[in-house]
Every structure is written in C-alpha cells, then in structure tokens.
Amino acid sequence: MDCLRPCRTEWLCSPRGICKKYFCDGCRRKKCPCSGRTLHLFYAAILLSHQRTFDCPGKGQWGVDGSDKWRGLYGRKVAILGMGNNGRMLADRLQALGMEIYAYDKYPVKGYDYISHKYCGLNGDTLDPILAECDFIVLTLALTDETYHMFDTEAFRKMKSNAVLINMARGGIVDTAALTQALEDGAIGGAGLDVIEEEPFPSDHPLWRMPNVYITPHMTPQVPNRAGRSIEIIRENARRFVAGEPMLNLLKPTDTFQSGNGNSGWARLTQSNLSKEEIAKIPLEKFLGKRGWTDPSEWNYLD
Q1: Residue 136: its H or E element
Q2: 117 tagged catalytic
C-alpha cells in the first residue's frame, strides 16, 4: 500500500496535544461542555456545603447550621483565566447565571460583549486587579513553561481571603505546596481541584482532609462520540493541508512544557522505561475510562 511506504512526515495529529513542532491537537473543542459540568459540581459543593446537606436526609435532619450565611452565584465576580474553547463556553454558562465575568487571556479576547472586564497578557495586563476583585478564580489555561506555577505564594496573597480557586486545567499551573499553605493560613477561602500537580495524588496529603477543599480525580465526564469527533478534526485538517488552508488547533512553540517534576500520571507512565509487556499489565482503564474506583490507593498503578 502506498500509505505504508517510507515518507517524510509533514504534520501529525496528537489526541493529547503533546507534540513539539508543526503538530495539531486532536482533542481541543471536544470536552468543553463537560468542563462546564465539573465547574458546576464544584460550585454546588462549595456554596451548599454539599456533604453536610446530603447527610441530612439520612439523619432526618431539617436544615444545616450556618445555611443562613450561604451565598448564591448571582452578582458574584468570577475570573476565567484562559479564554480558549473551554473558557468561552464557561463564560456563556456563567453569564446565564448572572455572574460578573472577568476574562484573562494571553491574546486579546474578541467578541463576548457581555464581558465588561477583559485583560490581555500581551498588552501588559497582569492578574493583580483580577485577584483583588474576584470571588472565584477558574483556571482553563494551557500548561506551558510560562504558566507553570502561575499560582504561587505571591498570587495567593493577592486573592481575597474568601475567594475560591477552581482548577480544571492542568495541575502544574498551581504550586501545590503554596496552595496548601494558603488554605491552612486562611489566606483564601477554598479550592475545587479536578487536576493536581502530582497524579495520582498521595492519599496522606492534608488537602484531602480540608473541609473547604473538593477534589475529583481528573474525571471530566466523557464526551459522546469522542473518537468520532477527533477523527472529524483529523479529516478536516487533512483537507486543509492539501488545500493550503490554515489548520485547526495548530500548536505553537510556546505551547511546549519542559518544567515541573513529571509527577503526573501520564508523565510517570511515559518516563517509566517500562517494556511493552509491562505496560500491557497496567490497568489503564482506571485512567482512561471506567472511573469506578473510590479508594485513592487504587490509583497507584505504577508503584
């Protein structure tokens, strides 16, 4: 077959967008709606003290102490850091809830006239006014050398003492040690974490036991027909390549990431030097799909 003959690679599509040069990401735009669901889960947990609320029926208890102090989302200020596909779709949903949106991106935020607070990194804008004003900071940024540990001790000091950080992007954007210290000191009000710097996250870490921290194990719900939507992106990029048109999701040199300590689940797997036979024995479905486990110790499949 002609397609199997040696040839010069002109472009490559990666489902995880981890390649370095002249490559396209096959997963962007596929999971945006599900990221919105994850955000709403954290909102519900944080605003309604959900564990105590859902314990009430089993106890026959009417009401939760302190519920008179709970506040809804309407009129509250939320920052979306990273206005890519996830950020834009989140903005639509949060605007419908009546929240005041602050949008930050490296590049100018075009359109979205209902967003009155727009910030652009290339124009010299910083996060300082956003951190000082917003009740919720939602991360939808890509992890690059530029964004690694963007949220460190100094950033947490600039946040409101009752502000909540929600990370649905990549764990390395947040310095875990600095976040833990900020929560222990009461420098910020809480956190919702779907991603963490080290994955699987150690079961003895103090973040697990903080009542104002909600952790989900990188478990954004699967998107219907995910493989089919990826193939559609590949098909369209093949057409564009032949036609000489701009390609979708083209990665830039600045999208590469070479910082960090490689403690995420995927990094540990790809850097483990395991043989094909050893990799075949790893229960990858725990990371890739079934999501049915509850004990954090079950995640340590590389130990």
Answers
A1: strand 136-139
A2: no
